[in-house]
TrEMBL record:
UniProt keyword annotations, A-Z: Membrane, Transmembrane, Transmembrane helix
SMART domains membership: EAL, GGDEF
The HAMP domain, residue ranges: 62-114
Biological process according to GO: signal transduction
GGDEF domain residues: 149-289
Annotated Gene Ontology cellular component terms: membrane
Transmembrane helix among keywords: yes
Presence of keyword Membrane: yes
Regions that span the bilayer: 12-32, 39-57
Annotated EAL domain residues: 298-550
Protein name: EAL domain-containing protein
Length: 559
């Protein structure tokens, strides 16, 4: 109502100003005859009209000025963090269009800030908290824990995701990561609803690394939940394009036993996770101070190993693979020996020891080249047994593996190549289509394919059924109690029969006791390698040893 009266008053004042100016001008021209008098009168009349117009315009501007002042105060409130209050009522009353524009601007600013916060604090693929968010929240949780609380940190690293990502492409790889995140959410949700978890913090750090902070769990609870995570991630990941098999290696660290801040906890959990990978993958490992010492030694050894490769300080040594029925030498297993100044070091766990990708590739290339040259020397010495060599993941998945071996064996004519490539069980499910094709091409050329570590960790039976292997090597852990435990013997016998039904040869080792050897022979195992604590032999000694077939037979028939 007041606005209407104000507009009416301003209108009447403007009309009065115009009428007054007209009357005074008319009187000036009628009453004044001289030109100079008319000019002076016109100046006074103009000034009077200007004064009236100024009064007419000043009235509405005073309301506008108050509205503008109110808007300025609102804008200054942004410095105090106020982005939610609407435009002041006076601005809405006097300048409604401007008030609407200001409200719209603040809406856009709030939306942009929300989007920026989401990008800064959450992973765009899985929508889980990212590294920055995890660190901020985890530090707050650890700082506020009670003295009787024992938080646990699970460091989860996917096994074989790189190969899956390479095989399916990054877009489908992201879909697999989303499925991983959803399975982890389900584990957390189920445990929370059961009352065993109190506000856990799940995050994706980067790539195929996830973390789960349990604010108050303790060792037993943390290990139980780690088992739940392993079970969830071992199930196949099915998509419209393809089914993928992965798994995970998990490191577990406890606070304050393994560290009382996030940095030390993450370091401990990371060391434990790498130990889980070294132990065969698809398992959880609790941190132990001894693991830290081993990790430091490994880091130092890796630095020296790179220099040793360049200096030619490596050589292949061999241990025989014996038939348990006839005692014949079926193959020679090649191991990399590093001739260090402090004594030789056997790299019998090559992929686990070398974590650096570039170093692993360099060592894999050296191993393959050395094995091919050894095959030529064996042939010249009259040996027809194949040479078995284990390569790291980076060499098995190389697109030019078949071409490299074809070039290396170019002079062999039509004879089968006397080479056997060993893959660990965890590598099979992660093989790309191209890697499968290359291995098939190599088999056609006579290269044998062996699977190592079968039965250890989470055995992937579907992947084994769909993979053509000439030999399957049992995990050494299965042999520890095979001569003293009925259950261990039954498990080993079942695996041997399964492998035989698939048309592959079963190899076991290392065998440390005569009783183990007898049990393996009794359950139908085909061959052993690394037996009765016999050390690997250098090439000259091995070739001479193979020439004495009676020696091999006598070792296999020890009773």
């Amino acid at each position: 109502m007041s606005a209407s009266w104000t507009r009416l008053a301003n209108g009447l004042l403007s009309v009065f100003a115009g009428v007054s100016a007209f009357i005074l001008t008319l009187l000036g021209f009628l009453l004044l005859g001289r030109l100079d008098q008319q000019i002076v009168a016109s100046l006074f009349i103009g000034l009077f009209a200007l004064l009236l117009v100024r009064v007419a315009t000043e009235r509405p501007n005073s309301s506008h000025a108050r509205a503008v002042a109110a808007l300025i105060d609102r804008l200054l409130a942004v410095a105090r963090g106020d982005l939610s209050s609407p435009a002041p009522p006076l601005v809405r009353k006097e300048l409604p269009a401007l008030a609407s524009a200001v409200d719209g601007l603040f809406d856009q600013v709030r939306t942009s800030l929300d989007n920026f916060h989401a990008l800064a604090m959450y992973d765009p693929v899985t929508t889980l908290p990212n590294r920055l968010h995890f660190r901020k929240e985890a530090e707050r949780i650890l700082a506020g824990r009670a003295l009787d609380q024992q938080p646990a940190l699970l460091f989860i690293d996917l096994d074989g995701f790189k190969e899956v990502n390479d095989r399916l492409g990054h877009a489908q790889g992201d879909q697999v990561l989303i499925m991983v995140a959803n399975r982890l959410r389900e584990v957390v949700r189920a445990e929370s609803q059961a009352g065993s978890l109190n506000q856990p913090l799940l995050a994706r750090l980067a790539g195929d690394e996830f973390t789960l902070l349990l604010p108050d769990s303790g060792r037993e609870e943390a290990e139980r939940i780690a088992s739940q995570v392993l079970e969830a991630l071992t199930e196949p990941f099915r998509s419209p394009c393809q089914t993928s098999h992965m798994g995970a290696s998990i490191g577990v660290a406890l606070c304050p036993a393994h560290g009382d801040d996030l940095t030390s906890l993450m370091k401990a959990a990371d060391i434990a996770m790498y130990h889980a990978k070294e132990s065969g993958r698809a398992r959880a490992c609790l941190y132990d101070p001894e693991l830290a010492r081993v990790s430091m030694e490994r880091a130092a050894l890796q630095g020296e190993l790179g220099e040793a490769i360049a200096a030619g300080a490596l050589e292949l040594v061999y241990r025989p693979q014996l038939c348990l029925r006839s005692g014949a030498i079926l193959a020679g297993e090649a191991l990399v020996q590093w001739n260090r100044p402090g004594g030789p070091l056997l790299l019998d766990r090559l992929p686990a020891m070398v974590q650096d990708a570039a170093l692993a590739q360099a060592l894999g290339e050296w191993t393959l080249d050395a094995a091919v040259k050894a095959c030529a020397r064996w042939r010249a010495a009259g040996l027809d047994q194949p040479l078995s060599v284990r390569l790291p993941d980076c060499d098995i998945g190389r697109f030019d593996l078949a071409a490299r071996l074809t070039s290396a064996f170019d002079g062999w004519g039509g004879d089968p190549w006397p080479l056997e490539l060993e893959l660990v069980q965890g590598q099979i499910a992660a093989l790309s289509v191209g890697a499968h094709l290359q291995l098939a091409m190599l088999r056609e050329s006579g290269v044998g394919i062996a699977i190592g570590g079968f039965g250890g960790g989470k055995a992937n039976l579907p992947a084994l059924v769909g993979f053509a292997a000439d030999k399957v090597k049992l995990d050494p852990a299965l042999l520890i109690d095979i001569d003293t435990s009925d259950r261990a013997r039954i498990v080993a016998a079942s695996l041997v029969q399964m492998v035989r039904a698939l048309g592959s040869t079963t190899v076991a080792g290392p065998v440390e006791r005569q009783e183990q050897l007898e049990v393996l022979r009794a359950i139908g195992c085909d061959a052993v390698q690394g037996f009765l604590r016999v050390e690997p032999l250098d090439e000259a000694t091995f070739i001479a040893w193979v020439a004495g077939q009676d020696c091999a037979g006598s070792l296999a028939r020890v009773s």
